[in-house]
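Slack export, channel: ligand-projects

TW: morning all. Re-posting the request from yesterday since it got buried. We need the structure predicted with the small molecule present, not the apo form. The ligand is zinc ion; the SMILES is in the block with the sequence. No rush, but it would help planning for next week.
GE: picking it up
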Amino acid sequence: MTIQIRHLDSAQPDFKQRLDTLLAFEASTDEAIEKSVAAILHDVKHRGDAAVLEYTNKFDRIPASPTSMAAFDVPQTELQAALDALPAAQRAALETAAERIRVFHERQKEELRGFTYTEPDGTLLGQKITPLDRVGIYVPGGKAAYPSSVLMNAVPAKVAGVLDIIMVVPTPDGVKNQMVLAAAAIAGVTRVITIGGAQAVGALAYGTATIAPVDKIVGPGNAYVAAAKRRVFGTVGIDMIAGPSEILVLCDGTTDPDWVAMDLFSQAEHDELAQAIMLCPDADYIAKVEASIHKLLPTMPRADTIRTSMTDRGALVKVRDMQEACDIANAIAAEHLEISAEDPQQWADKIRHAGAMFLGRFSSESLGDYCCGPNHVLPTSRTARFSSPLGVYDFQKRSSVIFVSEAGAQTLGRIAAELAYGEGLQAHARSAELRLRPAA
Ligand SMILES: NC(=O)c1ccc[n+]([C@@H]2O[C@H](COP(=O)([O-])OP(=O)(O)OC[C@H]3O[C@@H](n4cnc5c(N)ncnc54)[C@H](O)[C@@H]3O)[C@@H](O)[C@H]2O)c1
Ligand SMILES: N[C@H](CO)Cc1c[nH]c[nH+]1
Ligand SMILES: [Zn+2]
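GE: finished. pasting the full token output, ligand included:
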């Protein structure tokens, strides 16, 4: 069975409505998922490890259903052994990717320095940047294993200076992915626990007898993970709700259609709920990409996932011109935007909303997923309008620093007292006034 890919045309009178319907994604707020996640979190909060054990055994089908959480802890020696046993080419690829990710994120750290400045009366003001003490990183593992996501989560945490990095990753059927363990060794993760889903998010947020609570939970996951992160926000920090993967290819019709078809597949193969869309002004070229899609699909091991995702949520969209393609791209605010065109920079200049932009036909999104250096944990479902890629800044926080000199207290004390009386807050006013020198 082949893909029934949806065709849209921006000239259609109901185009906007069709596009809105295509983009609507409600899985993480699906009522059945919400109910189930609320129950799991409640259970983990009140029954701790016992609940985590039960849900893990059930949802991840762990053989022999262990009765102790110790079964899910992966010792550092096992992480190192996985790294040592890795085929040389895999190890080299992981290490090179980790190094490139580190170099990119070190640049972010340089941009995030604190500051102080001193006023003429000796008052000093500033901002201090401190890494978080303890973070939980969620590495998805239900439908595929993601060593690359280990690096993308843990390396920026390490660069930021986080002391304790607790990684959770589900192991369906109890099978541990050796590359995931090796990546954790390379990235210097403090502790790996093979649990996933809402129960892992709950354990990290509330803590259990065997897992101390973390300060923040980061990382992508399925709708259960997303719903759980949304619910525990406030008890802990979260980075964002990173849902199913998305790719938007904006193409002027000059790239090999097979390349574009495969780029669309590259995100569609993640998940039946993933979204792959192409915008192009050239109808003949769109037909060529569609022919490539039909030709290449049977060659793909994950054809079933690609077929479902592209049939349910994919589209080939004919636009008036590249300028209109940019306008629509801004409205879609995709996780990944490929600008597969001659002189891509002219179009990139017009893009305001995208998790990551890949410029030119050689910048396939897949390179960014693994090893360019920028993070692959990106805002999805149009949240690129207001949020950013996972970065060093997610693992740091700011504190204001205020040193008021005696002279400064004379000026600021009068201003503060005036405002405090205006607000009817006498203690505030008096506290400022007590520091004023008596009038000579
Ligand atoms: N944005 C990114 O950077 C990025 C990176 C990699 C993957 N992804 C996305 O992350 C997602 C990963 O999803 P996944 O499913 O493969 O792995 P996952 O680890 O997110 O989810 C697996 C867990 O879901 C829970 N679960 C499954 N069915 C359940 C049910 N019926 N009730 C309660 N809990 C249930 C189980 O606890 C299981 O351990 C995909 O959508 C993929 O596209 C995003
Ligand atoms: N494309 C995913 C983010 O949406 C990240 C990833 C990991 N491995 C392959 N791809
Ligand atoms: Zn990917």
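GE: first-pass observations. The CA atoms of residues 28 and 227 lie 5 Å apart. The chain has three domains: 31-240, 243-386, 405-440.
TW: perfect, thank you
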